[in-house]
């Protein structure tokens, strides 16, 4: 009997030890599972950088470099053949519109004028004779018409001869300065021979190129401050004269700014200049870094972080671009956080860890 009691007691003790060990193991497994869940949750969070949405005054001012070009530039070419008798201007001479620059020998041309006038008088007499004979029935209407045509042609030849004589005196067609003289007295000219280069620098144009974002704020007539690189202490007032309706190969828009020269020697064509475009202070707007946009600014999507360290993919409406900052017209509120790096690993609802 004692032996049986002893066996039963042993069994009870062993069962108690087994139950205690099982309880300890279950409790340890629960703790390990909780730790594993915390680690898994931590490892699932994606590290990102964020930027706080704030309202900031948007400055649209910018500078653009370019080169000054003359307001007018003209290369004179000979229209008739002949020998130059005299040249009346030199390089650097100021000339006025209509002023004679050079004289070409005109003896042969004068003979052509005289011949054309005599032919005209003969044609006029023939027409009168045919008209008188037509009244008496001596000629036909067709002959009268031919006489009238001959008279018209003779008159045209007189005008052409006179024009050639007038062209023999080379006259300026614009006001300006003789920049180049390509002929000398005695030169033999053929039609198309280069004679003079005349430039007018009383007004100049500064040719610059602006970006897509900048051209949207410009209009013809805007006043612009202009400086020359070699005259940094002088400021000139320019006016936007032309804005290209189409971008060039580099996706910039050519702009011409017209400047009135202060005097004949201040600005010269070919100098480099700087246009300073200034705009009135703008109202504060919501600006976010350009890097906040998923893909590109044109996609109009950003990730917004909430208080629970989750992100929401949100569609916004972007506006003007100022360097690395982009205006957001709608879709964001001041104080919200937008993700600026790490978006490639994110999806709507992803858990994040914010890197300071």
From TrEMBL:
<keyword id="KW-0175">Coiled coil</keyword>
<dbReference type="InterPro" id="IPR058647">
    <property type="entry name" value="BSH_CzcB-like"/>
</dbReference>
<dbReference type="InterPro" id="IPR058792">
    <property type="entry name" value="Beta-barrel_RND_2"/>
</dbReference>
<keyword id="KW-0812">Transmembrane</keyword>
<dbReference type="InterPro" id="IPR006143">
    <property type="entry name" value="RND_pump_MFP"/>
</dbReference>
<feature type="domain" description="Multidrug resistance protein MdtA-like C-terminal permuted SH3">
    <location>
        <begin position="285"/>
        <end position="342"/>
    </location>
</feature>
<protein>
    <submittedName>
        <fullName>Efflux RND transporter periplasmic adaptor subunit</fullName>
    </submittedName>
</protein>
<feature type="transmembrane region" description="Helical">
    <location>
        <begin position="7"/>
        <end position="26"/>
    </location>
</feature>
<keyword id="KW-1133">Transmembrane helix</keyword>
<dbReference type="Pfam" id="PF25967">
    <property type="entry name" value="RND-MFP_C"/>
</dbReference>
<comment type="similarity">
    <text>Belongs to the membrane fusion protein (MFP) (TC 8.A.1) family.</text>
</comment>
<feature type="coiled-coil region">
    <location>
        <begin position="113"/>
        <end position="171"/>
    </location>
</feature>
<dbReference type="Pfam" id="PF25954">
    <property type="entry name" value="Beta-barrel_RND_2"/>
</dbReference>
<dbReference type="InterPro" id="IPR058627">
    <property type="entry name" value="MdtA-like_C"/>
</dbReference>
<feature type="domain" description="CzcB-like barrel-sandwich hybrid">
    <location>
        <begin position="77"/>
        <end position="200"/>
    </location>
</feature>
<dbReference type="Pfam" id="PF25973">
    <property type="entry name" value="BSH_CzcB"/>
</dbReference>
<feature type="domain" description="CusB-like beta-barrel">
    <location>
        <begin position="206"/>
        <end position="276"/>
    </location>
</feature>
<keyword id="KW-0472">Membrane</keyword>
